[in-house]
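User: I'm curious what two different proteins look like when written out as structure tokens. Can you demonstrate?

Assistant: Sure. I'll show them one after the other, since each token string lines up with its own sequence. Here's the first protein:
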Amino acid sequence: MEYVKAFLCGGILCVIGQVLIDKTKLTPARILVGYVVAGVVLGGLGLYQPLAEWAGAGAGVPLAGFGNLLAKGVRQAVEEKGLLGALTGGFTAAAGGIAAAIFFGALVALIFRAKPKR
């Protein structure tokens, strides 16, 4: 049942993104930023965590989940370090994922060569 919930949540997030691409003049980059911002706002308000607990990876893996992770990191750092934590908490919470993305991106760039568009 966990897989079904993850598939439903992730699928709905993807459908929303596809509808925004097809029916609006928003660029994919703006839609992706919108997902991160929505995750931060919903995470900051405490509304994203119940969805993440219900849907598991279906809510944790997409960009909205990244935004939620940033909000959670800021909240935790503010509790521990005060106002200074608002500046560092998001970076600390997301450091592992960002480092992995940079590492694997560089690795793929070394293994494969880009081909020019025709």
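Here's a second, unrelated protein for contrast:
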Amino acid sequence: MKKNIITGHTLLLLSCLLITSVGWCQPPMCGCTDTSATNFDSKANLNDGSCKYAHTTLKAEVLGTLDSLVEGSSSLFYWRNGFWTYNDHVNNCIYLIDSTNASITDALCIKRIKNQDTEEIAQDSLYLYFGDFGNNRGNRKNLRILRVSKESLENKVFQIDTIRFSYEDQTDFTAHLQATDFDCEAFIVLDDSIYLFTKQWVSAQTTVYSLPKTPGAYMAHRRDTYNTKGLITGATYIPEYQHIVLCGYDYDRKNLFSALHPFLILLYDYKDDHFFSGNKRRLDFPSGTKAQIEAIATSNGLDFYLTSEHFHTTRMGLTFDFPAQLWRVDLRKYLMPYMKSKSKND
């Protein structure tokens, strides 16, 4: 896995944080360097992760309703100049989605894959990684990520390897439906590692775990936890600018009127692979918006596409029905200042 190399910049940050803890840090060093934050410090030149933001409401453009073949859409990724999705169960085909109207334009069915509960697909230059680790009862002992060679997909010979893992701190495997902190629906691949972002039904937080991206059996190493105040269901990583966007929704199974409110969380200007050490900004959709948002992807780091899974239930005589859809959101306003500053500094 990626080694924790202490760079000069990281050492400076650690020193500043230590000094800050005892009250000795003076400007212009540590502080919030994001101009869009409410506590932006113009004298600070080293981001200490303390930025705070005003509540922000984000509008989405609904591009269309997904075909019934992909109403279980739980992953979305950009590959071969298009956006592809995959159901969390049912079949083993990835489907190319028209990014203007949500229609299916192509399909690629992968032989020799058993899809128990695949909740996310991530990628690097050589492979697609199928995250078959959905675990909303908390009792799975066969968590795995299937690594599929992109070249083999092109040639339709399907070269597939398996990465198996367990959470290093999970000791109780008693089944508790939607009452576990060891569910997962989001991950990214970075350098030589996989980073899982858990979906924590109990604490409404997310914890990052890391493991190697090569075939084998591993203990996923617990890294950092962040209070997302909701369930994380998808992640996308933009390597050019080293920022991450998470998607998710609030959930209260006792009160569905206040549940399924989607949100995004932006992670940027962090240090190395400590994703919560930098800016952490939550963007909410309007309060009346309801959707089981499951996946997010982008081709340019500015325009982001999301898919929602079909949600249907009846509680106390009331029926809740939210369709599977494709959305688009424009995050230029929020990410462009950082991207410009990073390009300038690089």
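A detail about the second structure: Residues 305 and 328 are 5 Å apart (CA to CA).
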